[in-house]
Write a sequence for this structure.
């Protein structure tokens, strides 16, 4: 694969003019279902040294959120620059080109400007479906598949097969026997081939783990001893949950998991995180070796988070913090930030205008996010509004806004229920304050903020 990749890149580069010469390269790394369960965000039981290594160079956004905690709507939002309500993509079943045949996506924008646009792994949703990968976006797209040995090993389904994804596998073989190991090796080769070319590149690298089922080489499971993993424990005082908060229908099965099964799922997820951390390290090593930091913008993020037992839930698709909160690291070679951490609420939707501005162009008019360049320069500067997320429960729509202190959520414009959580005293979002009269003014302000983004007329 490596030899063939080098030939393909060389041929494509030789055929094109270089109108974008002198612009920065872009390396976008997307990691599927990656929550903020990382050492850089305070979870010291997770082994993730390469995230720490990148964070030392980057601006780390502490309150970044996905616009929809499900793969297709989230990725479509980020790559088109549209909120899910605007794109119409609200599930994993509809390819965005069906509804948006002429929209210019993020990689397509840079390809039109003369960049070499390449995809390795999962960026658009639709694993195994080449049409869903959007041919307009890429000069070259690769989808490594792993090996047979990488699909064998020790593991089990902790629900006895009732929920298909709820299984783990400590796989035989090496990292290179896993699809994500092959993604990392292909990314290293691509960087080596593209480095020094007069034509700038937009390289998107998509890792599938730690997405369920939780599969990683055995050595990453060995990093975590079951008995030492700390399970999520709800507070002794908690509100009656809003019925629509957890998606179901698997909620009862997941709620009744025994402690050992919970620890096994957590171990499998963390093994996947550490596996991906190692693959990230290979890419960072390559940037070091090639002096790629001098002219390459680097972004590492995820499409959404993942519950590991919070609110008795395992998975995504909620409007609670673990589902929507994502890691976001941005390194821009042309900017030396005054500080390395930003507490401001930002959105995955903001990446499109941010990258366009960093490359020196005017963003397309259709974009609904805001450029983060000002926050990269001055991470603690004033920043209005908040970050906005949504989900769908059949005919019921949930919309949520997260500010620095508050989370406010409406179901069908409030007709099916509202939620208000104060993160200064309740970071786990267990005490719904929405019915208490002393919070009427706060709710009014947050409702207006929500309506300013999601038109409820």
């Amino acid at each position: 694969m490596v030899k063939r990749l080098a030939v393909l890149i060389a041929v494509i580069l030789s055929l094109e003019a270089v109108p974008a010469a002198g612009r920065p390269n872009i390396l976008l790394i997307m990691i599927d279902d990656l929550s903020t369960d990382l050492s850089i965000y305070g979870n010291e039981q997770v082994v993730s040294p390469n995230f720490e290594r990148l964070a030392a160079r980057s601006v780390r956004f502490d309150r970044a959120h996905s616009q929809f905690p499900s793969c297709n709507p989230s990725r479509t939002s980020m790559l088109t620059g549209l909120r899910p309500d605007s794109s119409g993509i609200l599930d994993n079943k509809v390819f965005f080109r069906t509804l948006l045949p002429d929209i210019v996506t993020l990689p397509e924008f840079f390809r039109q400007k003369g960049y070499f646009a390449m995809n390795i792994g999962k960026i658009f949703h639709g694993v195994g479906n080449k049409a869903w990968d959007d041919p307009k976006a890429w000069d070259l797209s690769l989808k490594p598949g792993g090996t047979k040995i990488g699909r064998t090993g020790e593991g089990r389904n902790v629900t006895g097969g009732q929920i298909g994804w709820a299984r783990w596998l400590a796989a035989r073989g090496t990292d290179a026997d896993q699809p994500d190991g092959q993604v990392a090796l292909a990314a290293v080769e691509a960087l080596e081939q593209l480095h020094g070319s007069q034509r700038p590149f937009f390289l998107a690298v998509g890792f599938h783990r730690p997405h369920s089922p939780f599969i990683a080489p055995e050595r990453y499971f060995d990093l975590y001893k079951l008995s030492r993993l700390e399970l999520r424990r709800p507070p002794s005082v908690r509100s009656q949950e809003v019925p629509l908060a957890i998606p179901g229908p698997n909620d009862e099965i997941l709620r009744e998991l025994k402690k050992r099964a919970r620890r096994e799922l957590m171990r499998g997820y963390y093994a996947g995180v550490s596996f991906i951390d190692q693959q990230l390290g290979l890419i960072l090593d390559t940037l070091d070796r090639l002096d790629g930091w001098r002219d390459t913008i680097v972004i590492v993020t995820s499409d959404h988070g993942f519950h590991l037992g919070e609110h008795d839930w395992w998975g995504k698709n909620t409007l609670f913090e673990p589902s929507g909160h994502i890691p976001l690291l941005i390194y821009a070679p042309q900017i030396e930030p005054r500080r390395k951490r930003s507490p401001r609420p930002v959105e995955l939707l903001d990446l499109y205008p941010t990258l366009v501005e960093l490359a020196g162009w005017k963003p397309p008019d259709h974009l609904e996010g805001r450029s983060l360049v000002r926050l990269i320069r001055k991470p603690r500067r004033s920043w209005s509004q908040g970050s906005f997320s949504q989900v769908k429960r059949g005919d019921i729509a949930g919309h949520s806004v997260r500010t620095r202190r508050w989370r406010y959520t409406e179901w069908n414009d409030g007709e099916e229920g509202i939620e208000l959580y104060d993160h200064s005293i309740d970071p786990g979002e267990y005490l719904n304050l929405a019915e208490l009269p002393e919070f009427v003014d706060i709710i009014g302000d947050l409702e207006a903020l929500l309506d300013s983004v999601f038109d409820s007329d």
Remarks:
- Residues 2-387 form a domain with the Alkaline Phosphatase, subunit A fold (CATH 3.40.720.10).
